[in-house]
Design goal:
- Strand 6 (136-142) and strand 7 (145-154) form a beta hairpin.
- The radius of gyration is 16 Å and the shape is globular.
- It has helices at 3-7, 17-33, 71-82, 91-113, and strands at 38-40, 51-59, 62-69, 119-121, 125-127, 136-142, 145-154.
- The chain has a single domain (16-154), classed as CheC-like (Chemotaxis protein chec).
- By secondary structure, it is of the alpha+beta class.
- The protein contains four helices and seven strands; from the N terminus they run ααβββααββββ.
Length: 160
């Protein structure tokens, strides 16, 4: 691993990010949302009616994770996570579940990328579907729709 990756100054492109992300997304969705995710090629036409959330992190590394779900996937995972019938799930509850998914995925991915690091996650926030994809990015097919995950890591000020 490159020294700057270890210190949190940059995100080394050689790290096994796709493998770590793929296994983490699959594990989180299977155990907490009762669905599966399969890494797939990115084609973003589905993002037109999607919902997104992002969470910033700081500490030994500085950056942001962005999660985007197709509306069909969001409509499916929310009631599964809450243990409700789909007709009982409100738009507010769906938004809260997407925020929770963002928080869970970010924490799980970061702890696998940098197990010895000290990171603080901000409160996740909902975003529009027109957010710009930056950094490392992968898409996943869910039985009910699509999910994309982006991770952007910036250089810490002490690294400049």
């Amino acid at each position: 691993m490159a020294p700057e990756f270890e210190t949190g100054c940059t995100l080394d492109q050689d790290i096994q990010f796709p493998e770590i992300l793929g296994s983490t997304v699959d594990e989180v969705l299977e155990t907490m949302f009762f669905t599966e995710a399969l890494a797939t090629d990115c084609a973003h036409e589905w993002r037109i009616d999607a919902v997104s959330a992002h969470v910033r992190f700081d500490g030994s590394h500085l950056g942001e994770m962005l999660i985007t779900l197709s509306s069909q996937a969001a409509d499916s995972i929310a009631p599964a996570f809450l243990g409700l019938d789909p007709s009982e799930t409100t738009p507010e509850a769906r938004g809260q579940v997407i925020l929770e998914l963002t928080n869970i995925l970010c924490g799980a991915v970061l702890s696998r990328l940098w197990p010895e690091s000290k990171l603080s996650l901000a409160t996740p926030e909902l975003a529009g579907s027109d957010v710009r994809i930056e950094g490392l990015h992968h898409c996943f097919a869910l039985p009910e729709g699509m999910l994309s995950v982006s991770l952007s890591v910036q250089a810490k000020p002490e690294c400049s």
